[in-house]
Structure formats: C-alpha cells, structure tokens
Write a structure and sequence with these properties.
32% of the residues lie in helices and 32% in strands. By secondary structure, it is of the alpha+beta class. A hairpin with a 4-residue loop joins strand 2 (31-37) and strand 3 (42-47). The two termini are 18 Å apart.
Length: 69
C-alpha cells in the first residue's frame, strides 16, 4: 500500500541539503514520487515504507523532520 507523506525539514538550508535528502530517500527502494521544496522546507513523497522509517533515515542523515498530518 502506498502512503503519501508530507514532512517539514527545518534544517534544509541549501541545494546541497536537497541533494543529500534526495539521495538518502532514493536509497529507499519503495519511494514512488519525491518532491522537495527548499523555500518552504517541505518534502512530499509516496512510498510503501512506514513514515517512522522515513523519519529515521532523514534523522540519520542529519535532517530531522516533522510529519505533517
């Protein structure tokens, strides 16, 4: 089952951050669609992976995120 997840990533400050987040999430094989907006510091994705796993992946990469509900 595919879940739509929206996150706030307050530590995302530059295009290098965007690239790191993209690479971190693309390493997760079940990412279907990924959109990152640097200006609003938001990440949207469709995945079969549980949101807690996504949050841990980002935190481990240095980008703690908050789930938008």
């Amino acid at each position: 089952m595919t879940n739509k997840i929206q996150l706030n990533v307050p530590n995302m400050k530059c295009n290098g951050c965007v690239t790191t987040i993209e690479n971190t999430l693309k390493d997760e094989a079940t990412i279907k669609d990924l959109s990152i907006d640097l200006n609003s510091k938001k990440v949207s994705l469709e995945t079969e992976t549980d949101s807690e796993v996504i949050l841990k992946l980002l935190a481990d990469a240095g980008f703690p995120a908050v789930l938008n509900k």
